[in-house]
Design goal:
mainly alpha, Multidrug-efflux Transporter Regulator, Chain: A, Domain 2, 2 domains, two-stranded antiparallel ribbon, 5 helices, about 65% helix, about 5% strand, DNA binding
């Protein structure tokens, strides 16, 4: 599959695919004319890379985890890395839930404030 096809199907730019290749996250074969060709599985792989990036993993961390991800076999070191990333993501989720709950409070507060007879709690910006 050509680079443009992978980019379109995975929902990323061609530039992103080239970057993944530079970072050692994605491999392509080259035609005699120098065009990149990827296996069909590259689309799913790129989507996984995108998810890991969105979760806050760096390209270096993803590269460290490649052998484990590709083989489905973990070493004690890779298990430690995976567990650490999972714990970090859990902390992010907790923070996002807290932020969402505060927004819910603010939404409720402003809805009450729009009725003339209600008093509401306000937040002062430092």
């Amino acid at each position: 599959m050509r680079i443009g096809d992978v980019a379109e199907r995975a929902g990323v730019s061609v530039r992103a695919l080239r970057y993944y290749e530079e970072q050692g996250l994605l491999n392509a074969t080259r035609s005699t004319s120098g065009q990149r060709h990827y296996p069909d599985a590259a689309v799913e792989w790129v989507q996984l890379i995108q998810q890991l990036y969105a979760a806050g993993l760096s390209s270096a961390r993803i590269r460290d985890l490649l052998p484990c991800i590709q083989s489905g076999v973990s070493t004690p070191e890779s298990l430690t890395l995976l567990a650490g990333e999972r714990a970090r993501i859990d902390d992010q989720i907790k923070g996002l839930i807290e932020a969402r709950d505060r927004l819910d409070e603010i939404i409720a507060m402003t809805e009450r404030a729009s009725s003339p007879s209600s008093a509401c709690r306000t937040y002062r910006v430092p």
